[in-house]
Write a structure and sequence with these properties.
Distance between the termini: 46 Å
CATH topology: Rossmann fold
CATH superfamily: P-loop containing nucleotide triphosphate hydrolases
Radius of gyration: 16 Å
Largest sheet: 5 strands, parallel
Structural class: alpha/beta
Number of strands: 5
Oligomer: single chain
CATH architecture: 3-Layer(aba) Sandwich
Order of helices and strands: EHEHHEHHEHEH
Number of domains: 1
Shape: globular
Helix content: 40-55%
Length: 177
C-alpha cells in the first residue's frame, strides 16, 4: 500500500545506534503510538528460531527481512489513521543494504513509495551513553560512520532532518517523588 506523497501523521525518530532514541520513545509512548524498531525484532526472531537472517550470518537476508518488516509496520500504521512515531524508518534499510554490500534498489524503491512526515527527528551519536549489547554490536566509531550515511540517505530521499538536542533530560525518564 504505497503512500501518495508524504504522510503527515507518520513520524520518524532515527539515529545512529545507541544515541538515546529508545529512551525518548519510551517517554513519548504515553501520548503517541510508537512503532518498535524492526531490526531488533528481526534479530531476536532469527536467533530464537535458529534462522540465518542476522547481520553476522547472512546480511543480505537480514536486510530483506528488515525491509519486509518495515513495510508491514508502515502499512499497519497508515491504515490506523492515528499519529504514529516510528523507531527508524524505511530509509534506514538503505543504509543497512549499503553497509552489507547488497543491492539497495528494493530499499530505495520502498523509501520512495512509502513516505513519512517530511521532517525527521534525528539524533547524533553520543559516546557518553553508547553501550553495546547482544543486538548492538557496532563499535562507537562505526556508529559515527552509520550516522553520516543515515543523514545523507534521508536528505537524498527528500526528508528534512531536525536535530534533537543532546541533553540528559531528553533521554532520562522523569522522576516522580
Amino acid at each position: 500500500m504505497p503512500g501518495d506523497g508524504f504522510e503527515s501523521n507518520l513520524f520518524i525518530l532515527t539515529d545512529a545506534p545507541g544515541s538515546g532514541k529508545t529512551a525518548i520513545l519510551g517517554r513519548l509512548g504515553n501520548e503517541f503510538r510508537c512503532v518498535d524498531e524492526p531490526a531488533r525484532e528481526v534479530l531476536a526472531e532469527q536467533r530464537a528460531t535458529g534462522g540465518s537472517g542476522t547481520w553476522d550470518q547472512d546480511a543480505s537476508l537480514f536486510v530483506h527481512l528488515l525491509l519486509q518488516r518495515s513495510i508491514e509496520k508502515y502499512a499497519m500504521a497508515r491504515k490506523s489513521g492515528k499519529t504514529v512515531i516510528f523507531d527508524r524508518g524505511i530509509p534506514d534499510c538503505i543504509v543497512h543494504a549499503v553497509r552489507a554490500g547488497t543491492d539497495p534498489t528494493p530499499s530505495l524503491e520502498a523509501a520512495d513509495a512509502y513516505r513519512h512526515q517530511p521532517h525527521v527527528l534525528f539524533l547524533e551519536p553520543w559516546s557518553d551513553i553508547y553501550k553495546t549489547d547482544e543486538e548492538r554490536i557496532m563499535s562507537f566509531d562505526d556508529t559515527v560512520s552509520f550516522s553520516q550515511t543515515l543523514r545523507d540517505v534521508y536528505e537524498r530521499s527528500g526528508y528534512t532532518l531536525v536535530d534533537v538536542p543532546r541533553t540528559r533530560s531528553t533521554i532520562e525518564q522523569p522522576s516522580y517523588a
